[in-house]
Design a protein that fits this description.
By secondary structure, the chain is α/β, with parallel strands linked by helices. It contains twelve helices and twelve strands. The strands form two sheets. It has a six-stranded parallel β-sheet, sandwiched between helices. It has a six-stranded mixed β-sheet with strand order 7-6-8-9-10-12. The radius of gyration is 26 Å and the shape is elongated.
Length: about 325
């Protein structure tokens, strides 16, 4: 048996010298309706504050059929873009008096299904998910149970609202900058090819090549996943096949960039790496590197705000004017124009 004692409303009533009913009415905001004196209210509230006591969330949930909690599913907390999204989401939920419950899928569809079931069992009011599969049918059962919104990635044909960065336009601008400055070879390292961010970023890359009259060569586009080790392995593989480094490299996530940088640091030193680097997602540590990296900056707070807004609108039964929302991105240019 546990030696811990859970504080109850009976304990608060005893410490305040009032009945259980009076303590309950005060702490649940019904003191004025039942004409409980101001002195009694202050005494009960003082005791509750000193004991860090709040009325049971479970009891309130049963009465209101709301848990005032939102579930967030992200693939990987070590991905700085998803960590920034989670940080922004937690703050926005707190401002609306919601608790955010965070779980990770590890980019594994089976794990994702398990953690979504866990959140549903916790009676979250809504779920916001960075999906790790493009299979629409994987998410349909949840739509019938609670509000579901995708963020950062969409699943085409699912009918589920989504909030994503305008990856196509931002990549076109970033790669286009390098081509305008004389670069003639840009290699693309991407994540899972079937996911919407991979498709959008690849489309932007190819549009930039076409606009600047550059023909894509075999081996320029390489896909694996968005994990750090894949950036290392793709860089290793490219060098083994071509016996040199590419003139320029675009990585479709900062996690892939981390892996590529690890390879460069291990095999030729970052200060001596003869290539231009471009990446989707930015990080302040990129300012500290001995080589420059131009980056696309996602607006994590706007993505969090829009997806939470959609989820709470669905919770209230509102029709969505914009079921799919594109959030503009900005560029952080470290190379001189």
């Amino acid at each position: 048996m546990s030696g811990y004692k859970r504080l109850t409303i009976d304990d608060i009533a005893e410490l305040a010298g009032v009945s259980r009913t009076t303590a309950s009415m005060v702490l649940n905001g019904h003191a004025e309706r039942y004409r409980i004196s101001r002195a009694t209210v202050e005494r009960v509230e003082k005791v509750a504050s000193e004991q860090h006591f709040n009325p049971s969330q479970s009891a309130r949930s049963l009465r209101s059929r709301r848990s005032n909690s939102v579930g967030l599913v992200i693939p990987d907390l070590t991905n700085s873009a998803h960590a920034a999204l989670a940080q922004a989401m937690e703050e926005l939920c707190r401002q609306r008096d919601y608790q955010m419950l965070l779980v990770t899928s590890d980019e594994d569809p089976r794990r994702e299904a398990e953690v979504m079931a866990h959140l549903a069992a916790r009676q979250v009011d809504a779920m916001i998910v960075v999906p790790c599969t493009h299979e629409a049918k994987s998410y349909q059962k949840w739509v019938r149970r609670l509000p579901l919104v995708f963020v950062d990635r969409r699943v085409d044909g699912s009918g589920i609202p989504s909030v994503v960065t305008d990856g196509c336009a931002s990549v076109e601008r970033l790669v286009g900058d390098a081509l305008e400055q004389g670069v003639s070879e840009v290699v693309f390292f991407g994540g899972q090819a079937e996911l919407s961010p991979s498709r959008d970023r690849l489309q932007g890359y190819r549009q930039a090549l076409a606009l600047h009259g550059v023909e894509e060569k075999p081996g320029w586009v390489c896909h694996r996943d968005y994990l750090r080790r894949s950036g290392f392995e793709l860089m290793q593989q490219w060098r083994q096949q071509h016996h040199r480094l590419p003139q320029a490299l675009f990585t479709a996530s900062v996690s892939l960039l981390e892996g590529a940088l690890a390879f460069l640091n291990q095999h030729c030193g970052l200060a001596n790496a003869p290539l231009r680097l471009l990446t989707f997602d930015d990080h302040s540590l990129l300012d500290c590197l001995p080589l420059r990296v131009d980056a696309i900056v996602q607006d994590s707070r706007e993505m969090a705000a829009r997806s939470l807004e959609l989820a709470l609108a669905l919770l209230e039964g509102q029709a969505l004017a914009e079921p799919e929302f594109l959030v503009p991105a900005s560029l952080h240019r470290r190379w001189p124009a």
